[in-house]
Amino acid sequence: RHSWALLKQKISEKYLLNQSSDVLLEITPIEKSDDIHFIVGKINGRAQAMFAKHLHYDERAINGFIVALSEVCQNIIEHRKNKGFVGIQKYYFQNLNKNVVIIVVMDIGIGFEVSLSERFSLRNDPEAIEEALLHRASRYAEKGRGHGLAAMRRFVNQ
Questions:
Q1: Which end of the chain is more exposed for a tag (fewer CB within 10 A), N or C?
Q2: For 37-76, what is each residue's pLDDT tens digit?
């Protein structure tokens, strides 16, 4: 019984995120709002350290990143068909001599084109994504909608 507990601990330690890793967030499922709160809590301290060291972000920019991440994760909750996933990793690009952070957000929803098709005439997903990113298009007619992806774009441009 004791040896089983030790083996279990060794296995779990093997798969824990190494503190020196460039992975900020392992691929993590998102099914409900609590998952977003968990993700933000999990990466907050690590993002502060990694972004200040490798990207030279100040606290305002780091907080902007966390807000932008929350926004795109919230889009999964609002637009998905099933669950979604998010992962974040820092990469060093030698040819640019820069560190960059890549955020991957994915869901298995209906897609941008179908989502926006009730309100807009669009030919494909890339065109619909452009409308959402550049023109704050939303499938909802309510005032104040469609800012999530546009806010993410503004953050990235800054």
A1: N
A2: 999 888 887 888 888 887 888 888 888 888 888 888 888 8
> Is the CB of residue 149 less than 8 Å from the CB of residue 78?
no
Looking at residue 20, its amino acid is S
Q: Alpha carbon 39 to chain centroid distance? A: 9
CA 18 to CA 141: how far, in whole Å?
45
Task: Classify residue 114 by burial, with Cβ atoms within 10 Å: 0-12, 13-18, 19+.
Answer: middle
| Tokens read off for 145 | 């909608």
Q: Quick one: which of 107, 109, 105 has its CA closest to 89?
A: 105
List b or e across 26-49, with b for residues whose CB sees 16 or more CB atoms inside 10 angstroms.
eebebeeeebbeebbeebeebbbe
Q: Strand 84-93 vs strand 23-30: parallel, antiparallel, or unpaired? A: antiparallel
pLDDT in tens, 8-30: 555 555 444 444 457 888 899 99
125-135 vs 148-157: helix crossing angle, rounded to 10: 70
pTM given for the model: 0.70
